[in-house]
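Supplementary Methods, section 5.1.

A reviewer requested that the exact input to the structure prediction be made available. We therefore reproduce it here, unchanged from the version used in the analyses.
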Amino acid sequence: MRVLLIEDNEDIAKGLAQSLESLSYSVDMALDGEEGLRQSYLAAYDIIILDLHLPGLSGIEVGKKIRAQNKTVRIIALSV
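The structure derived from this sequence is encoded token-by-token as follows.
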């Protein structure tokens, strides 16, 4: 399963990615909304884990743009 993790806190992103990879998931990371959106258009992901509080483009904006392009990808929203 291929996962796109969009999270601006690098420590959290690395920890989540390591945990998912230990379960045999393939994980790509983006540390801001614009990069995450770009990556979402370049590859097919089974699931996107999306932080709602991102610099630049917010997670809400990113989610709406991804959903407009891909009606079926699963998106999990993270918020603290």
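The longest helix spans residues 10-22. These observations are discussed further in the main text.
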